[in-house]
Amino acid sequence: MDNRSTRIARDLLSIQAVILRPDEPFTWASGIKSPIYCDNRLTLTAPEVRTDVETGLAELIREAYPEVEVLMGTSTAGIAHAAIVGHLLGRPMGYVRSSAKDHGRQNQIEGRLEKGQKVVVVEDLISTGGSVLDVVQALRDAGAEVLGIASIFTYNMKKSEERLGEAKVVNHSLTNFDVLVQAAAETGYVRTEDVTRLIAFRDHPSDESWIHA
């Protein structure tokens, strides 16, 4: 396993930014029963973890997107990360609202963005991929060249991979569901026998048979 991916996974577990609870599943807004809940905003209030995350994102962007000119955070979870990483990289940043304002200049994109600029979208979490692709489309409509996405965590769901592929968008995450589950098992956070159940959820989120497996 990649050292950075494993370290970030353990960081997220240590501050309960990610909670695994296969025996007492959460219910998502969609109604899906889930053994995992993710709130990466908690990384901002844990200085050591925040340092790992932001330096990790900066390293990832340098490696995967060396041509980047502007960072654009998703609203609202990606804004702080885009600002901190933009500072570390010496790059301008802005953010994209979920919809245009209904007053003033009616902006959807906040911050200066010139047509043709090479942009990386900074996101905290990739689940089904829908919301981040809305951000990508808004940037493309504004004339930006979107190089891809840099995110903290991805669920590795098939639906998100299909959506990103169809939109011709690349995502690089610091860590992912599979690495996190393995790290959780190695540290005793979950039982070894729960790993199969967790992966079954990842593969088929709407199939609740993993709950009683």
Helix and strand arrangement:
Elements: H1 3-14, E1 18-20, E2 26-27, E3 33-34, E4 36-38, H2 47-64, E5 70-74, H3 79-89, E6 93-96, E7 109-110, E8 118-126, H4 130-141, E9 145-154, H5 158-166, E10 171-176, H6 177-186, H7 194-203
Shape: globular
Cα gyration radius (Å):
17 Å
Largest sheet: number of strands, sense, barrel closure: 6 strands, mixed
The quaternary state of the protein chains shown equals single chain
Find the count of extended strands (DSSP E, 2+ residues). 10
Q: Work out the helix count.
A: 7
Mean of pLDDT? 94
Structural class: alpha/beta
Order of strands across the main sheet = 7-6-5-8-9-10
Fraction in helix: 25-40%
Q: What distance separates the N and C termini?
A: 27 Å
Portion in strands? 15-25%
Q: Can you offer a commentary on this structure?
A:
With 213 residues, the protein is an alpha/beta fold. Helices cover 38% and strands 22% of the residues. The chain has helices spanning 3-14, 47-64, 79-89, 130-141, 158-166, 177-186, 194-203; strands spanning 18-20, 26-27, 33-34, 36-38, 70-74, 93-96, 109-110, 118-126, 145-154, 171-176. The protein has a six-stranded mixed β-sheet with strand order 7-6-5-8-9-10, with helices on both faces. α5 (158-166) links the parallel β9 (145-154) and β10. α1 (3-14) packs antiparallel against α2 (47-64) and α2 packs across α3 (79-89). The longest helix has 18 residues, at 47-64. The radius of gyration is 17 Å and the shape is globular. The model has no long low-confidence stretch (mean pLDDT 94).
